[in-house]
DNA sequence: CGGCCTTTGAAGATT
DNA sequence: AATCTTCAAAGGCCG
């Protein structure tokens, strides 16, 4: 659980997160400067908990996970300023500045192949966008100024202060195919689902509902092939004929993953890097350099991601994908092997603290300056 | 061609 | 309860 070890007692960042940057004066200053916003964020998180508790359908399976997750994230102690701050946030982040009406605003078809992240477009969809094509991706048309002002074409209901959570299941029903027994019966508008995902078992949720987060459970290569060809009906059909395997529902993206997804293209453009490992290091640093408010936006997005995911797949568990690796050619023995490998690696890394150095060497970065100029 | 690298955070598993 | 492990994304690299 993210917890700040610094004086603020904030719970946003992970312990190691603060440790890692403790020796960075710049970061330290930032933390102090942002003492207030840190508290704000904590309050925000607390408010999110309350929102979830209030808005969740108590009879649905959704409640179980939502409360669990948020409570872990937002301890009670941070609820103190809830009333005041949450109002402010309603009027601020939730209402005007941040993705109002999110996540159920429909924008350009997110499932077009060309809708992927582009450094030049300045419009970056955040969620499961490039290939998973999560529904939320279509609703987050933000780039540099993501979470900026409210689109004028918002449905009245969407732009109202009560905001993002009110009547969510109803809102959802207009855009998302919810499983029977979930949060309600739906007659989804499928127009923005790619045809390939509407075709048959390989793209179908176990409930029979297609969803872009559902991918074939096979290996990475095949997965990528599938993605590349997902708009080619024939290709998909052939695949389905060959191996109609049980689809895998991917995990919802967390805040940092959403941030990465949005910023990756920028970093690639700025730093002319392509290797994800290097890019992710940069993004990790930038993530820490974000203000609490900026991070809060992504936490909020991630929270909605999870909420949506829960509503779409009430019975889904992260454990499903633990086992998904076994569903293909892999055996349980392989799974154990992988587990062991990871464990061994971690032990190795414990005795080898110089991994960042290694990485710099590996990616040809300057060992002295740590990071290339713009890539901080 | 499968797996690694690298990041943070969520969630399940284990101790 | 605390700690550990896995998985989300990404794409180049390596054996």
UniProtKB/TrEMBL annotation:
Region: Disordered, residue numbers: 1-93, 146-166, 327-362
Comp. bias (Gly residues): 1-11
GO molecular function, one term: DNA-binding transcription factor activity, RNA polymerase II-specific
Lineage start: Eukaryota, Metazoa, Chordata, Craniata, Vertebrata
Family that this chain belongs to: Belongs to the TCF/LEF family.
Annotated localization: Nucleus
Name of the protein this chain belongs to: HMG box domain-containing protein
Native organism: Gouania willdenowi
DNA-binding region: 249-317
Gene: tcf7
Polar residues biased stretches: 47-60, 146-162
């Amino acid at each position: 659980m993210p917890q700040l070890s610094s004086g603020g007692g904030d719970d946003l960042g992970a312990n190691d997160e603060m440790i890692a940057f403790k020796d960075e004066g710049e970061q330290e200053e930032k933390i102090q400067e942002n003492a207030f916003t840190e508290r704000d964020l904590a309050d925000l998180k607390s408010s999110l908990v309350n929102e979830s508790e209030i808005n969740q359908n108590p009879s649905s399976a959704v409640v179980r996970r939502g409360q669990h997750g948020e409570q872990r994230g937002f301890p009670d102690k941070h609820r103190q300023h809830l009333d005041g701050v949450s109002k402010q946030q309603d009027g601020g982040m939730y209402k005007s500045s941040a993705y109002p009406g999110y996540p159920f605003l429909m924008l350009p078809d997110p499932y077009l192949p060309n809708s992927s992240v582009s450094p030049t477009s300045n419009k970056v969809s955040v969620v499961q966008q490039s290939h998973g094509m999560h529904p939320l991706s279509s609703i987050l048309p933000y780039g540099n100024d993501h979470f900026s002002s409210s689109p004028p074409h918002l449905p009245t209901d969407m732009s109202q202060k009560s905001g993002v959570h009110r009547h969510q299941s109803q809102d959802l029903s207009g855009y998302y195919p919810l499983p029977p027994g979930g949060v309600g019966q739906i007659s989804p508008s499928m127009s923005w689902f790619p045809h390939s995902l509407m075709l048959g078992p390989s793209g179908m949720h176990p409930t029979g509902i297609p969803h872009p987060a559902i991918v074939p459970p096979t290996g990475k290569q095949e997965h990528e092939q599938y993605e590349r060809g997902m708009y080619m009906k024939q290709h998909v059909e052939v695949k389905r004929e060959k191996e109609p395997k049980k689809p895998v529902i991917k995990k919802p993206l967390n805040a940092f993953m959403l941030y990465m997804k949005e910023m990756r293209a920028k970093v690639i453009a700025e730093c002319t890097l392509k290797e994800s490992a290097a890019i992710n290091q940069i993004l990790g640093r930038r993530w820490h350099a974000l203000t609490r408010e900026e991070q809060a936006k992504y936490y909020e997005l991630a929270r909605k991601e999870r909420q949506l995911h829960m509503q779409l797949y009430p019975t889904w568990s992260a454990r499903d994908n633990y086992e998904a690796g076994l569903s293909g050619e892999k055996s349980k023995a392989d799974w154990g092997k992988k587990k062991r490998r990871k464990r061994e690696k971690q032990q190795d890394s414990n005795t080898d603290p110089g991994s960042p150095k290694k990485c710099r060497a590996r990616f040809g970065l300057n060992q002295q300056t740590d990071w290339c100029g713009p890539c901080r």
